[in-house]
């Protein structure tokens, strides 16, 4: 019931209909305990329209809004550059990206520096030397990408 009071109070303070706010928030937010997420969610459609974000990307935008700590203006300005699509897992996204772009991210042994190398060269080297192909280094991907609870992948921008 605490969330309901927050919704009603928020609606009254900002001139929204409490029932509309409750329905809208229930669809996009699993837990409502402060005004900040409500403010972000309620202004999301305006920000999406201002930034040319398609209505079909609403779920992805709402996930990104949470990643941006409910800062709707920041989420709106960065979403286009950050969004990488919907995937079963970050590993699946990494594998597809490697297939599409032909490069794999690895950490070097001594310096732990991140390097990107040609995956086709690695495959050829492994074939020629009867070696197993390297696994996708998810640590490298997790440093640069986030996957939401709904499977939307976002690049850090």
Describe this structure in a few short sentences:
The chain is an alpha+beta fold and about 160 residues long. The chain has helices spanning about 1-15, 20-30, 35-40, 45-50, 60-65, 70-80, 90-100, 120-130, 140-145; strands at about 85, 105, 115-120, 145, 150-155.
Order of adjacent strands in the largest pleated sheet:
1-5-4
Identify low-pLDDT runs: 1-5
Give the assembly state of these chains: single chain
* N-to-C span: 37 Å
The total count of strands amounts to: 5
What's the order of the H and E elements? HHHHHHEHEEHHEE
From the alpha carbons, calculate the radius of gyration and give it in angstroms.
21 Å
Features:
single chain, 157 residues, alpha+beta, three-stranded antiparallel beta sheet, 9 helices, 5 strands, disordered N terminus
Explain the layout of strands and helices.
Layout: H1 2-14, H2 18-28, H3 35-42, H4 44-50, H5 58-67, H6 72-82, E1 83-86, H7 90-101, E2 103-107, E3 114-118, H8 119-128, H9 138-144, E4 145-147, E5 152-155
Antiparallel strand pairs: 1-5, 2-3, 4-5
């Amino acid at each position: 019931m605490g969330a309901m009071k927050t919704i009603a109070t928020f609606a009254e303070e900002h001139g929204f209909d409490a029932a509309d706010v409750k329905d809208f928030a229930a669809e996009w937010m699993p837990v409502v305990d402060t005004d900040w997420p409500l403010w972000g969610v309620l202004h999301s459609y305006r920000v999406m329209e201002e930034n040319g974000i398609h209505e079909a990307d609403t779920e992805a935008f709402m996930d990104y809004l949470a990643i941006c700590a409910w800062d709707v203006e920041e989420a709106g300005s960065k979403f286009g550059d950050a969004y990488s699509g919907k995937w079963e897992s970050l590993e699946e996204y990494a594998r597809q990206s490697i297939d599409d772009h032909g490069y794999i991210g690895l950490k070097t042994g001594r310096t732990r520096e991140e390097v990107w190398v040609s995956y086709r060269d690695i495959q050829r080297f492994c074939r020629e030397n009867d070696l197993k192909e390297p696994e996708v280094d998810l640590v490298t991907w997790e440093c640069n990408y986030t996957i939401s609870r709904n499977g939307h992948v976002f690049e850090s921008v």
